Amino acid sequence: MKPKTLLLTLLIFNSFAFAQTTEAPITLETKTGNIEGSLMAPHSTTKVPVALIIAGSGPTDRNGNNPMMSNNSLKMLAEGLFDNGIASLRFDKRGIAKSKNAGLKESDLRFEHYVDDVKAWIDLLKKDARFSSITVIGHSEGSLIGMIASQKEAVDKFISVAGVSVSAGTVIQDQIKAQAPMLLEQTIAIIKKIENGENVTEVPPMLHAIFRPSVQPYLISWFKYNPQDEISKLDKDILIIQGTTDIQVDTSHAHALANANKKARKHIFEDMNHILKPAKIDRIQNLQTYSNPKLPLVEGLIETITEFINN
User: How much is the pLDDT for 224?
Assistant: First the structure.
């Protein structure tokens, strides 16, 4: 084989091997089962920053997908950071995808389980000598989880992406007001009891899916947190990110979160929706992006996050 041909072959082989090893599985062992994740770490002779990415509510996996739709938003975020020399760890929440075995009975699950899982991931990253700093990135419901967990000293920076600024009880109340106003009075009464730590024995059939008895212990643990109170406790650099065409969380939440902590900076992306993709405000067109895994993230998002982490 000629020297030039041999060199080219070695370069192709090495490039292929590098590509194959950029993402590695990582496991967090818990008392109720293993939580599985993916670690993307650039090859480097020096320490690099690492971002811990937390998915939003529902059966959302480490890539930002769920059984009904695939958009790969969080996977694209991790890949974009990797291309800019930043490592990342994203994971399937307990009970979801490859972390299914770590799930608990609905009546046993508490919001603090998710917070404690993130704290444990932070401890794992802190012990890894490859990383120079830890940034927590929480998307949607992951924003509240992240800002509570980021009160740990080990976290250097926090990023809220499409996070709400009010309690979950208020969010549900607003949704009922907009979608089923005839149920608002009953909803307010139920939420008030749950916020006081009380179980509600009689739930109207039309509200049973939201306030069924088995989920009430989780709601009690969740409703007591106010995002503005929690973010105000962070004594570290904060970045608030929101899109103008997010049909789930409007920009007023970003303004409120930023105002709650003087160390927070804010970036509003024009025409970015809830899954971080370019989209119009039209609901049907907007939702179509939720099932398009090839649609790239909105322009400038990766650069903004990279600059914040590296600064």
Answer: 97
Cα separation, 64 vs 60, in Å, equals 6
- According to DSSP, the residues that pair with 137 across neighbouring strands are 53, 159
Report the amino acid identity of residue 180. Answer: A
d(CA 191, CA 193): 5
Q: What angle do CA 286, 290, 293 make, to 5 degrees?
A: 130
Two structure tokens written together for 73: 């938003």
Q: CA-CA distance, 262 to 115, in Å (whole number)?
A: 24
Residue 22 has a pLDDT of 81
In terms of Cα–Cα distance, which of 129, 143, 159 is closest to 51?
159
Which DSSP category does 206 fall into? G
Nearest to 69 by CA among 300, 273, 307, 282: 273
Listed in sequence order, the residues at least 6 apart from 62 whose beta carbon sits closer than 8 Å to its beta carbon are 37, 38, 53, 55, 74, 75, 90, 91, 92, 97
- Spatial separation of the C-alpha atoms in residues 177 and 32, rounded to whole Å: 38
Burial class (CB in 10 A: 0-12, 13-18, 19+), 18: exposed
DSSP string, 138-193: EETHHHHHHHHHTTSTT--EEEEES--SS-HHHHHHHHHHHH-GGGHHHHHHHHHH
Segments of the chain with pLDDT less than 50:
3-21
**Chain length of the chain:** 311
For residue 181, the cross-strand partners are: none
Unique residue bearing structure tokens 């830890």? 134
Cβ neighbours of 268 (radius 10 Å): 14
Task: Give the SS3 label for residue 106.
Answer: helix
